[in-house]
Design goal:
- The protein is mainly α.
- The protein is built from 16 helices and 3 strands.
- It has helices at about 40-45, 50-60, 65-75, 80-90, 95-110, 120-145, 160-170, 175-185, 195-205, 210-220, 230-240, 245-255, 270-285, 290-310, 320-330, 335-355; strands at about 25, 30-35, 40.
- A 3-stranded antiparallel beta sheet has the order 1-2-3.
- The two termini are about 45 Å apart.
Length: about 375
């Protein structure tokens, strides 16, 4: 009889290896993030989101013909079915866009059946549709919640520019277009985070990809995961003025309260994604139509946090900088986390495909702490 080895419970599974992966790599001590061996800094400088998505999904940079086909396929599938749009119209207007995104993504699985997850064609076209339609859903949600009709996608615009156009019915400046594209690249994958683990667990059951992505979106919606960038903007609004920053931070530290967007469970030094965004924030500061008050407060926040906390290994992370970037280019705060999902869907799908290569359903153990061998007390005898 095989002897069962008892292990200690590890809260949050911190440090527990749950899978082997060749998708992304992090060195938290040195502030390194790579996708398929290519540094995030290089991809942010030289790549596009759709090229990076291909890299994550298929393990290498695409050839020119492959990228052209992938771009064309994604562009062709950006529109939503009329019944999906009608369904969205009947959802509560006070719902958070992440709840819309999760519900509509799940419903898409009924329109594009993809149960044969071991079929390469099913995997490819599911990935294309999910990458293509999440921006359209997010933009439509924003419009509907404000009483406006959704705007149809434009096939002549880039992936990022089309999303901006569907939100605001105007084309972005070249800088804003690039900033949005880089933002999606930076959110593409981040090893075994909570939402990616959720995607792999659901994927291990051979569920369809729409169910998988819907489960990952639900996981991302929590404030301890994707929702932190919204909290950063709320903090900036609470501070109100540049002159209030130092006092605000000192009060937080005195009360031992968390400062949103500061510190990271993985990075013990600067977050490399945040360092990329800092360069774009500097460019945006010179750009017309930018929320300069947000930039002033955030600059003072960054300086004060560095002074007070860098010696403890606590630095602003990507949530800090992404919240600032989104606010400065006019993106409503309730869309910050859905845009996170628009980028991260490439990573979720890549992990799903990787999981299927040598799949084994996840079935961890638990440590039971409840009562045992208790008597059943009849209803009349219960106190």
């Amino acid at each position: 009889m095989e002897e069962k080895i008892l292990m200690e419970v590890v809260p949050g599974l911190e440090g527990v290896l749950a899978a082997e992966s060749a998708i992304s790599y992090i060195d938290g001590e040195r502030g390194i993030l790579e996708y398929r061996g290519i540094s995030i800094e290089t991809l942010a400088e030289k790549s596009s989101f759709l090229e990076t998505a291909w890299l994550l999904l298929f393990g290498r940079l695409p050839r020119e013909s492959e990228l052209r086909k992938f771009r064309d396929d994604v562009t062709f599938h950006t529109r939503l079915k009329l019944k999906i749009l009608r369904m969205m119209e009947y959802l509560p207007e006070n719902g958070h866009p992440m709840h819309y995104l999760q519900a509509v993504t799940s419903a898409m699985g009924m329109y594009y059946p993809a149960r044969d997850t071991l079929n390469p064609d099913v995997r490819y076209w599911s990935a294309v549709r999910l990458i293509a339609k999440l921006p359209t859903i997010t933009a439509a949600v924003h419009r509907l919640k404000h009483g406006d009709a959704p705007i149809q996608p434009r096939n002549d615009l880039s992936f990022a520019a089309n999303f901006y156009y569907m939100l605001f019915e105007k084309e972005p400046s070249p800088l804003v277009e690039r900033v949005l594209d880089v933002m999606l690249i930076l959110h593409g994958d981040h090893t075994m985070n909570a939402s990616t683990f959720s995607a792999r667990v659901v994927g291990s059951t051979l569920a369809d990809p729409y169910t998988i992505v819907a489960s990952a979106i639900g996981t991302l919606s929590g404030p301890l995961h994707g929702g932190a960038n919204e909290e950063v903007v709320r903090m900036i609004d609470e501070i109100g003025e540049k002159e209030n920053v130092r006092g605000y931070i000192e009060r937080k530290l005195e009360k031992k309260e968390k400062i949103m967007g500061v510190g990271h469970r993985v990075y013990k030094t600067v977050d490399p994604r945040g360092e990329v965004l800092k360069r774009y924030i500097a460019m945006l500061a010179e750009h017309d139509g930018i929320d300069r008050k947000t930039l002033e407060i955030s600059s003072e926040l960054e300086k004060t946090v560095k002074e007070k906390l860098s010696a403890k290994g606590l630095h602003p992370n990507i949530d800090f900088y992404s919240g600032i970037v989104f606010r400065s280019i006019g993106i409503p705060s309730e869309l910050f986390t859905p845009i996170f999902a628009i980028g991260r869907v490439a990573g979720w799908l890549a992990h799903w495909m990787e999981q299927l290569k040598s799949n084994r359903i996840y079935r961890p153990e638990q440590k039971y702490t409840g009562l045992r061998e208790q008597p059943y007390v009849p209803l009349g005898g219960r106190g």
